[in-house]
Amino acid sequence: MTPYRQFLEEEVPRLLPQLAADTQPHWGKMQPQHMIEHVSALFYLAYSQKVNACFTPADKLPKARAFLFNDDKHFRPHTAGPGLPKEPGPFRFADLDEAKDKLLDSMKKFFAFFDADPEREVMHPVFGPLNQEGWERFQHKHLSHHFRQFGLLPLLPGHESMI
Q1: Which of 52, 92, 103, 109 is deepest in the core (most CB within 10 A)?
Q2: What's the CATH fold of domain 3-10+31-78+96-162?
Q3: Is the pTM above the cut of 0.85?
Q4: What pLDDT, on the 0 to 100 scale, is given for residue 53?
């Protein structure tokens, strides 16, 4: 098991109960439920295979992928994914508990999808085609970023000055 998968399968379920509806973010405009719905959508994006294009220009893709595959590189506070709205939209689920359940369900579907064919490549809108390891790296990096945003993980050194 990769350390990325271990984090996703063991740490995420352990940390989720610590997130309450009134938890305040260190940065950004999302409420806890927005964040959970957002990260859940990225798991769905992988196993649904809905993305058929990478929006990163071909000449910038090697740098983007180098970032993804470098464990010492992290999303900075206030990093916004391309194409995301500036303001959070309405909630998709009734409450935070339902959103958490949907996230865990989406994660199970993600693992089942890739476990059936770990080398299958699915397009990521920023990092291009990724196999299971690439997607697990992304999900780990993405969830770690948002868990730091809401205090479920400690901020990284140097990030305190960015919030």
Answers
A1: 103
A2: Four Helix Bundle (Hemerythrin (Met), subunit A) (1.20.120)
A3: yes
A4: 86
